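User: quick one, sequence for these tokens?
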């Protein structure tokens, strides 16, 4: 019965994620608002609400390790999904048709990763949260400044489109939170696994479900920039959530609750983010090169998974 309820919530979340992607795509086409702004700020914030609720809740119930695992696992999973989609949409050559401006977002992510790793080793631990907040502010300012798309074709407007987007977003957040809570309850039925492993594998994937479905729908609409912006924006927002969660940790920092499993996901996340940035830097007609890099990203992800069980 528990599994059926979980699947029902997952199905409804998928349905609303698809609708949100459609409305986001239409908003971009019907206005001067760019794909980076809609995908990287609006949609990314909405689809990252499960990570926000789960992480804060985990800290409040005195399980910061679960919160940490959820964030680092979710972020690595998001980039892994981009690699999978690049292979699935082979003919569209996703990475080649994605704007190089998202290299800057990859750099912000890498800076976040590096400082979090330092914080996990008690280096600069007192300023890590401040850095995560500054990084998100820089990201937000860069998105607003580059929100220019004057040459795009503007289609006939639907005056209720923004209302539809907001209503869909609200319902998706509610369902995503319910889905996350159900996953958390199921996770507690398997106490033999570490909190980091549960957070990174079960909760990390579950809380990323809205991003996964939304990105797939955007790629089906050939909106490659918004798809990339959604995933990268979600990851940057997730690290902001980690900083917020740090405020709720009593007499310590959340980075102090990392373990060997956390470090695996952090190092893995750094590696596949670097590879993603590489795909955005190179512009070649040789599709096999993009596929080779994507396969490498997938192998790294599953290798980190494998390390959890040995």
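Assistant:
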């Amino acid at each position: 019965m528990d599994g059926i309820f979980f699947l029902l919530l997952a199905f409804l979340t998928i349905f609303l994620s698809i609708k949100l992607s459609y409305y986001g795509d239409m908003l971009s086409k019907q206005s001067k608002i760019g794909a980076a702004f809609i995908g990287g700020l609006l949609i990314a914030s909405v689809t990252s609400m499960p990570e926000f609720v789960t992480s804060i809740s985990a800290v409040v119930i005195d399980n910061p390790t679960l919160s940490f695992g959820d964030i680092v696992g979710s972020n690595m999973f998001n980039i892994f999904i981009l690699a999978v989609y690049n292979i699935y949409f082979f003919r569209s050559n996703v990475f080649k048709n994605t704007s190089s401006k998202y290299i800057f977002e990859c750099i912000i992510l890498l800076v976040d990763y590096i400082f979090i790793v330092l914080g996990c080793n008690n280096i600069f631990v007192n300023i890590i949260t401040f850095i995560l907040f500054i990084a998100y502010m820089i990201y937000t300012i860069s998105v607003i400044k580059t929100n220019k798309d004057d040459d795009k074709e503007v289609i006939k407007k639907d005056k209720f489109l923004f209302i539809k987007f907001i209503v869909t977003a609200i319902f998706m957040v509610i369902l995503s939170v319910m889905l996350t809570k159900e996953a958390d309850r199921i996770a507690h039925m398997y106490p033999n696994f570490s909190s980091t492993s549960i957070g990174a594998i079960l909760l990390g994937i579950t809380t990323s479900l809205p991003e996964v479905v939304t990105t797939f729908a955007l790629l089906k609409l050939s909106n490659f920039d918004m798809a990339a912006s959604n995933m990268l924006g979600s990851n940057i927002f997730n690290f902001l959530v980690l900083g917020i969660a740090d405020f709720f940790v009593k007499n310590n920092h959340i980075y102090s609750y990392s373990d060997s499993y956390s470090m695996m996901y952090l190092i893995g996340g750094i590696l596949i983010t670097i590879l993603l940035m590489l795909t955005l830097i190179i512009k070649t007609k040789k599709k096999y090169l993009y596929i080779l890099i994507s396969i490498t990203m997938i192998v790294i992800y599953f290798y980190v998974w494998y390390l959890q069980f040995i």
